[in-house]
């Protein structure tokens, strides 16, 4: 006898925890981080990259896009007949989705992300991230995996995913369908809320790499951490500095009237391959300034190159 349904709940949790998120994400051989020249100097001096709470990113649908997509395409995704369990229907699942969408700031959604691109010379990216007065940093193609290996510890529960963002809606739906299919064996469970919670955990984690097709020009790849803090603390106990043995802590910065939560995480500068500068009439002077910054970090041999975009100014 299992009056509390512990066996079935554990089975649902196991499906959620063993879903192969990382294997479904395409990796990029080219990795560029677009930023301003001022931020480049900070990155080099601090040897850190900034990870921002996704609830504060420029795309206001971050996190909720995948839930809205599930609701819109539920007829294509739902893998069992509603009649199999009167409490477990497409309509009830959509009601559950609505509650999650309307409570976006709950712990389920506390992810921190850093964005890169696999597009090496993008005018739109240079204009957006640096208002035409910036650069991109090229990283080695094994940077993300090395970054992951440095932070993952066997005694921690850090969820670290990386890969290309998926913009094609057909691809998104096909991936979502695999989640629904994995939970199909629980179609008749009396623990419907628990089933939905496990399903949505999977959907949200994988959905961190789904964006609306209108953003496709960004050609984004990203690193995503699922992080949380204890009550009355700013420490991420899941994310520990490899050398210092201390948890990283969140801070805030001001952007357009908002206090944006972030965490800066150390990385090895040896993975920095080159710097490409925005279209400019003063490339020689900017190149020398960047070379000074690079020499200060022992990276004087790294290439600094101009954008090939043929703007006059």
Q: Give the number of DSSP strands.
A: 12
Structural class category: alpha+beta
The biggest sheet amounts to:
6 strands, antiparallel
Which series of helices and strands comes N to C? HEHEHHHEHEHEHHEEEEEEHE
Q: Which stretches are poorly predicted, pLDDT < 50 over at least 5 residues?
A: none
Q: Helix fraction?
A: 25-40%
SS field, number of helical segments: 10
**Hey, roughly how much beta strand do the residues contain?**
15-25%
Instruction: Sum up the overall morphology in one term.
Output: elongated
* Span between termini: 75 Å
Residue-averaged pLDDT, rounded?
91
Strand order of the largest sheet: 5-6-3-2-10-9
Q: What assembly state would you assign to the polypeptide chains in this entry?
A: single chain
Cα Rg: 22 Å
Would you kindly provide a brief summary of this structure?
By secondary structure, this protein is an alpha+beta fold. It is built from 10 helices and 12 strands.
């Amino acid at each position: 006898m299992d009056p509390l349904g512990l066996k079935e709940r554990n089975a649902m949790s196991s499906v959620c925890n063993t879903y192969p998120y990382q294997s479904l994400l395409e990796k990029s051989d080219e990795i560029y981080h677009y930023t301003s020249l001022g931020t480049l100097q900070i990155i080099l001096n601090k040897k850190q990259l900034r990870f921002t709470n996704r609830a504060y990113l420029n795309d206001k649908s971050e996190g909720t896009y995948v839930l809205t997509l599930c609701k819109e395409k539920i007829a294509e995704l739902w893998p069992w007949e509603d009649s199999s369990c009167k409490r477990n229907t497409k309509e009830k699942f959509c009601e559950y989705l609505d509650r999650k969408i309307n409570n976006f700031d709950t712990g389920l959604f506390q992810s921190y992300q850093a964005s890169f691109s696999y597009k090496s010379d993008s005018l739109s990216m240079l204009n957006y991230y640096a208002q035409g007065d910036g650069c991109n940093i090229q990283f080695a193609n094994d940077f993300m995996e090395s970054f992951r290996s440095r932070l993952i510890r066997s005694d921690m529960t850090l969820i670290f995913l990386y890969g290309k963002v998926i913009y094609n809606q057909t691809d998104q739906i096909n991936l979502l369908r695999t989640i629904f299919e994995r939970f199909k064996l629980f179609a008749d469970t009396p623990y419907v809320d628990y089933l939905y919670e496990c399903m949505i955990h999977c959907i949200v984690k994988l959905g961190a790499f789904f964006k609306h097709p209108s953003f496709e020009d960004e050609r984004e790849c990203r690193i995503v951490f699922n992080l949380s803090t204890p009550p009355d603390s700013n420490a991420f106990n899941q994310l520990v500095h490899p050398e210092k043995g201390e948890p990283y802590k969140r801070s805030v910065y001001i952007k357009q009237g908002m206090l944006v939560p972030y965490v800066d995480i150390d990385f090895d500068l040896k993975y920095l391959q080159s710097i490409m500068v925005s279209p400019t009439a003063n490339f020689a002077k900017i190149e020398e300034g960047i070379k000074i910054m690079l020499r200060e970090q022992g990276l004087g041999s790294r290439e600094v190159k101009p954008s090939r975009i043929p703007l006059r100014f």
